[in-house]
């Protein structure tokens, strides 16, 4: 499994946990509240997506080679926020954060 796939799986696992409270869960709730219902309808076929559906939409925005950090965001440049996943030297997820 690639680190990008590991990062997405880590985001999914963090959702609904203490680790995810101020990262992925905050990202999801913020964007469900802020983006127009038409955005969700276009991408997910519903105006009121679940957390799992929003997480499933995440796309890689950038990867920082020097630090093994992956930044994920929503399609179509609708936000400046990213969910950033960093790895330690052993290839384990070190941190998941919401950043702008």
Strand order in the sheet with the most strands:
1-2-3-4
N-end to C-end Cα span:
28 Å
The whole-number mean of residue pLDDT values reads 96
Shape descriptor: globular
- The total number of structural domains is 1
Q: Structural class, please? A: alpha+beta
Largest β sheet strand count, sense and barrel closure: 4 strands, antiparallel
- Give the quaternary arrangement of the chains: single chain
What helical percentage do the residues reach? 40-55%
How much is the radius of gyration in Å?
13 Å
Task: Tell me what you see in this structure.
This protein has 100 residues and is of the alpha+beta class. 42% of the residues lie in helices and 24% in strands. It is built from 5 helices and 4 strands. It has helices at 3-14, 18-21, 24-34, 37-44, 51-57, and strands at 59-64, 69-73, 82-87, 93-99.
In short:
With 100 residues, the chain is an alpha+beta fold.
Layout of secondary structure:
Layout: H1 3-14, H2 18-21, H3 24-34, H4 37-44, H5 51-57, E1 59-64, E2 69-73, E3 82-87, E4 93-99
Label this structure with key terms.
single chain, 100 residues, alpha+beta, four-stranded antiparallel sheet, 5 helices, 42% helix, globular
């Amino acid at each position: 499994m690639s680190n990008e796939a590991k990062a997405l799986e880590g985001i999914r696992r963090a959702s609904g946990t203490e680790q995810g409270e101020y990262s992925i869960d905050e990202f999801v709730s913020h964007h469900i509240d802020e983006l127009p219902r038409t955005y969700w309808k276009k991408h997910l076929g519903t105006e009121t997506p679940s957390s799992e559906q929003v997480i499933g939409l995440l796309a890689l925005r950038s990867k920082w080679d020097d630090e093994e950090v992956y930044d994920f965001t929503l399609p179509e440049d609708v936000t400046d926020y990213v969910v950033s996943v960093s790895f330690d030297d052993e290839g384990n997820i070190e941190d998941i954060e919401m950043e702008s």
